[in-house]
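lol forgot to send this yesterday, sorry. struct tokens for the thing we talked abt
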């Protein structure tokens, strides 16, 4: 296990949520280990930032080959530690990092090349401006358990490709996957210290948040995000936060019934609903097919197989732990007590041996219920039938979250109009969830879903120092904005404003005023700054 060369004072268990059995013990890292990792990352950064893009790209592609060769081992580990069905472990956890390797290796150097900037002001004609993209230094990543491989690996790859070094703190609910990430980077040939993994509970995360980092990236709950921000403020460390969502689906009347039902079903129940972009509430606009869609969803949900990942026929796995199971049960039970109806599901399944909850379709819900306002993070699909498109949009936007939304329709132009009215970071039309695994597309939300962007060119920019460099070729010339100030300088400024921005009738006068006063003032400027007598006094 590549964690730290220092021995931790204590350990904690990793638990299989499908069986509640221990998978092994993992070091609980304390202040000494976290500090040592950050210090080592800074030391390694000194040389790593100087490594060429081509060399970094070769290592990234070697990591890709290694990841592909170990896909079966990794998928089984992910399934075992977080209960994810094997098809999801392959598709949602491994494909994104593999594609990210290719995209970074082929495009990073081009995307991060110096960019010249053309200046439009004629007074600046002697200047050349360049935008340079430089690595920040040490990037801390605190990653979640629900996508324990994809989320931290894709982020780490982007940070490393830029020339940063990384200290990764995986969730205490998926530490074995986090340790494996560190081992893979080491085996791929990345220099020691480029990426390090520190394991532990929230106390270890707190130590990393308060450390001397250049950037901190956190994925988790709103409460966790607030704590991380407060802790990072000790060093004024900038943070990027992805804090979950209450993602809405809007179904327009012309949406094909069976096809839409299949998409919504997967969006709500994949990973047992434990995805920040899960379909957590559905608004079906009343039409001739609205009742039929609900019936189809109910029938399909009732056929999903609930069980452990070891069963290749399993569609929906367990929740991560007892706390999450309790949260889902509370949301469902409170909704039913307030008038909602479970068309299918609605119960815990302790008889299966783990933290299982049945895939559930709820109707009769409204926005007074927690299940329509708070992130549930479980295999639950609450449905409201609404009267109009405007009502659907209003309800979808009536949320503290703003991560993603989906629109389902036959006419794509109508769906795009609805998409533009939704206050979220990503809208997917006739699909859901997939975009997080696509490295070219930006990821991030609004409101309590957090801020900052991951992935894409915007994610790269989030991980670098965007530096402006200005070069002036007119070395000996005076600048009209320099000292000394005078009445002629005021007239020159007035003339310049009219020349460049005033009405057409004012521009000729502006030109005369600007040019006349600029040259009148120039000799005085030079002589006054040098402490010499003016030409008039010299005579």
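and heres what i got for the seq, position by position
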């Amino acid at each position: 296990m590549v964690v730290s060369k220092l021995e931790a004072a204590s350990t904690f268990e990793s638990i299989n949520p499908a069986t509640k059995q221990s998978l092994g013990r993992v070091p609980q890292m304390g202040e000494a280990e976290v500090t040592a990792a950050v210090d080592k990352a800074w030391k390694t950064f000194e040389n790593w930032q100087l490594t060429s893009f081509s060399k970094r790209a070769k290592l990234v592609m070697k990591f890709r080959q290694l990841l592909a060769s170990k896909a079966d081992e990794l998928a089984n580990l992910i399934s075992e530690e977080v209960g994810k069905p094997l098809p999801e472990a392959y598709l949602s956890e491994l494909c994104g990092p593999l594609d990210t390797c290719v995209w970074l290796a082929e495009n990073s150097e081009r995307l991060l090349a110096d960019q010249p900037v053309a200046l439009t002001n004629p007074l600046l004609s002697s200047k050349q401006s360049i935008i340079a993209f430089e690595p920040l230094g040490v990037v801390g990543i605190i990653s979640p358990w629900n996508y324990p491989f994809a989320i931290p690996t894709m982020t780490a790859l982007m940070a490393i490709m830029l020339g940063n070094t990384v200290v990764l703190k995986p969730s205490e609910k998926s530490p074995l996957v986090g340790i494996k990430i560190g081992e893979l980077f080491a085996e791929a040939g990345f220099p020691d210290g480029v990426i390090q993994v520190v394991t532990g509970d929230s106390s270890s995360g707190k130590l990393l948040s308060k450390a001397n980092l250049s950037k901190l990236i956190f994925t988790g709950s709103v409460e966790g995000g607030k704590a991380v921000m407060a802790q990072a403020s000790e060093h004024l460390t900038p943070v990027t936060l992805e804090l979950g969502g209450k993602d809405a689906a809007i179904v327009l009347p012309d949406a094909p019934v069976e096809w839409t039902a299949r998409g919504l079903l997967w969006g709500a129940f994949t990973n047992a609903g434990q995805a920040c972009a899960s379909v957590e509430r559905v608004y079906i606009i009343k039409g001739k097919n609205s009742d039929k869609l609900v019936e189809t969803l109910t029938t399909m949900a009732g056929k999903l197989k609930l069980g452990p990942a070891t069963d290749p026929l399993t569609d929906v796995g367990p929740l991560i732990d007892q706390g999450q199971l309790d949260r889902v049960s509370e949301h469902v039970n409170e909704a039913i007590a307030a008038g909602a109806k479970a068309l299918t599901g609605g119960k815990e399944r302790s008889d299966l041996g783990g933290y299982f909850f049945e895939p559930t379709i709820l109707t009769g819900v409204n926005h007074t219920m927690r299940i329509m306002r708070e992130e549930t993070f479980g295999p639950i699909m609450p449905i409201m039938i609404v009267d109009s498109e405007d009502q659907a949009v209003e309800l979808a936007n009536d949320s503290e979250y703003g991560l993603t939304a989906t629109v389902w329709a036959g006419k794509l132009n109508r769906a795009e109009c609805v998409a533009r009215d939704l206050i979220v970071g990503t809208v997917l039309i006739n699909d859901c969830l997939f975009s997080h695994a696509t490295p070219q597309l930006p990821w991030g939300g609004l409101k309590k879903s957090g801020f900052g962007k991951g992935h894409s060119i915007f994610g790269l920019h989030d991980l670098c120092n965007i530096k402006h460099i200005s070069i002036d070729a007119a070395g000996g010339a005076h600048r009209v904005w320099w000292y000394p100030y005078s009445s002629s300088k005021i007239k020159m400024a007035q003339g310049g404003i009219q020349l460049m921005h005033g009405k057409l009738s004012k521009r000729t006068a502006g030109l005369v005023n600007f040019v006349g006063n600029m040259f009148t003032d120039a000799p005085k400027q030079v002589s006054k700054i040098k402490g010499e007598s003016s030409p008039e006094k010299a005579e």
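Residues 286 and 476 are 74 Å apart (CA to CA). anyway ping me if u want another try
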